[in-house]
Amino acid sequence: FNLQLWNNYFHLAVAFITQDSLQLENFSHAKYNKIQNKYGDMRRLIGFAIRDMWYKLGQNKICFIPGMVGPILEMTLIPEVELRKATIPIFFDMMLCEYQRTGEFKKFENEIILKLDHEVEGGRGDEQYMQLFESILTECAKQHPGISSLVESFVSLVRGLLERLLDYRAVMSDESKDNRMSCTVNLL
Q1: 111: Cα separation from own chain's centroid
Q2: What are the pLDDT digits (tens) for 86-124?
Q3: Where does the signal sequence lie (predicted)?
Q4: DSSP codes, 25-47
Q5: Residue 140 contacts by C-beta under 8 Å, 6 or more apart in sequence?
Q6: In the chain, what are the helix, strand and coil shares in percent, each to the nearest 5?
Q7: Is the confidence at residue 25, as pLDDT, over 70?
């Protein structure tokens, strides 16, 4: 097992699908349709490959926690529903791997909270993502009763944080200093 090779693969793949020129939702409708008809959405294809390769790591997955949490989060925040549905379960697998090794998933939790703050501040994330994140992880947790209560607490924590981050981002363009201050207090 060559850790550096796999690390390079994951980082390169995530860098590919998150590059600006592939963010089809930023294009005009005509340009979006033209690219979609000619090439399809390459992000989905590469995202599915990342997912498949993650699950092939077997016992070596633990080597990538917490290091791959940020890149995987960046990938799941791409506003493409099928990509999100296919890749958000990787987070549950990361939690499960760390839990099986240590009895908790604090490294994962700390890393995702830190990275989520950075990503949402950068303009990524939306209400749909929050709902998918919550429903997918809750559904995955139902299949593992030993960890389900911890996952539910984690999902609740992330949902609250994401709600506040999205509110904060929305009011930053607001003229009212009171609204901004109130939102900042809520976030803190």
Answers
A1: 11
A2: 999 999 999 999 999 999 999 999 999 999 989 998 889
A3: none
A4: GGS-HHHHHHHHHHH--HHHHHH
A5: 89, 92, 151
A6: 80, 0, 20
A7: yes
